[in-house]
Amino acid sequence: MQIDIEQKVRQFITDNFLFREDRASLTDSESLLEAGVIDSTGVLELVAFLETEFGLALGDAEMVPENLDSISRIVSYVQGKTA
Amino acid sequence: MRVEQFLRDSSRRFPEKIAVVAGDRRLTFREIDVASDRLAAALRRHGVTRGDRVVVFMDNRWEAVVGIFAVLKAGAVFSPINPSTKADKLAYLLNNCRAAALITLGSLLPVARDALAEAPSVKLAVVTGAAGKPAVAGGIRFEDALAEPGIAPSPDAAGIELDLAMLIYTSGSTGFPKGVMMTHQNIVAAASSITTYLENTPDDIILNVLPISFDYGLYQVLMAMRVGATLVLEKSFAFPQAILNKIAAEQVTGLPLVPTMAAILLQMKDLKPGAYPHIRYITNTAAALPPAHIARLQELFPQARIYSMYGVTECKRCTYLPPGELAKRPGSVGIAIPGTEACVVDDAGQRVPPGTVGELVIRGPHVMKGYWEDPEATDRALRPGPFAWEKVLHTGDLFRADDEGFLYFVARKDDIIKTRGEKVSPKEIENVLYALAGIREAAVIGVPDAILGMAIKAVVVSTHAAMKEQDVIRHCAKHLEEFMIPKLVEFRDSLPKTDSGKISRRLIDAQPLEEAE
Fold first, then answer.
1. A-side interface with B, Cβ within 8 Å?
2. Is B83 exposed, middle or buried (0-12, 13-18, 19+ CB in 10 A)?
3. Contact status, residue B477 vs residue B456, Cβ threshold 8 Å
4. Domain range holding B466?
5. How many CB pairs under 8 A join A and B?
6. Are residues B436 and B301 in the same domain?
7. How confident is the model at residue B511 (pLDDT cuts 50, 70, 90)?
8. Does the interface ipTM go beyond 0.90?
9. pTM, to two decimals
């Protein structure tokens, strides 16, 4: 389950954001903001992806760096919501 | 008055008051004053002298505030550069102004180092956050400079208010950025006028998430220092709820926005009217907010006075709409800011009657002195005014006035695109596109976007059948600042041309788009 979530999230970030960067990969704990991988519209795209892919409904209060600013944070957030 | 006097005065009046909140750091006016004195002394020791240009290549952090004031105290000229700038463009800018020094971050060193290798004028790099010794030739650590006691040159030794204070680069239709020259007098005039109509006081707490490399963001710093207000610096609006949490925690009173940020705020589902009663005012500039957004913003922030404003880098701010007029004329960007004049003229420079579209012309002490070492562009923008000694600013923006003199933006005269509140030159992006092997023709246009205002779209003709949208975007991301990277790429067999054979952006715009969007 966790591996499945992680793969999907990583795939989404690679396909939609990471391809722009001059780097092949991103560590699980790296901040997407600090790494320059994601911006305002990127966060909106990420949220739309999480909502359709995992059937979640994210409240505003959940759209914070603590939940969404790295692959591992996204994975544990999605896990918590779908458990 | 010189700009650094803002800080000296506020430090004398409110030494222990918090001047800057950035992340976990809170610094008082005295701390910013002392730190910038020390850095100014270090700059002088390392050969920076009066009139030298110093590039500040940093994101929104307290060190950037110290850096800017240190440069001014040293009698030098600061130039703030967007931290997402890539090495080749940074080198271009360093060479264009023949910078004597660069102030930057350890995390930006890979970019800075490549640029410095191409910029022989730079004698000194001041690097913050670098562990151990700065890994760049001619470098000193920011922290070391601040650790050493030092006193800035006396105000008299720094210079007078007619001296150049800032070079702020703006996109030009040629594709090469131009350095807008602002004297101390220019900045003091603009900052004083704006803080007057915003009625800023030392009780204000201003949250600034706009990049300080962008004059709207930069002036939040300068104006807070001028009035002795507290500045809360944030780096990104990507997580708007995190910003709202900060607004509540710091009891923010002033919130500068661009339309993109307003659009993002208005998309939030759980934002309740009146939840942030301490917000006294909200400002918007860069492009007019849609009237529906203004109405919704006012509903969410009922206590806030909303200011619709308009500006160009060449005079910082042109107009503002007194908030009391907003309900009556939501599409207007108002009247000239205090102490200045704005009018609409025809091609011959004659004022036109209300309702007639013409170019917006600005008079006032905030009008730039010209573009750095670009007399032709300067002559196009600054033209003879009513007095023999005066030049007035031709903004290149088409406006009209209503019967009571309130101004309305109509269009740009050139092809400059406004996206996320920033001006982008299509030519600059096209130059980058042509450097990608396989691109035979390229044109960049703006397409309406609910969040970005305009989204940047590249329309290209490629000789490589396998080339994909991602290849084009990846290439652009290597050479352009973040806000310039196209959001959309369209491949075509050919691009429409004018009779003289030039690719026509307007004709591309006019063609029906065949995208599945």
1. 19-22, 33, 36, 38-44, 59-65, 68-69
2. buried
3. no
4. 420-510
5. 61
6. no
7. low
8. no
9. 0.90
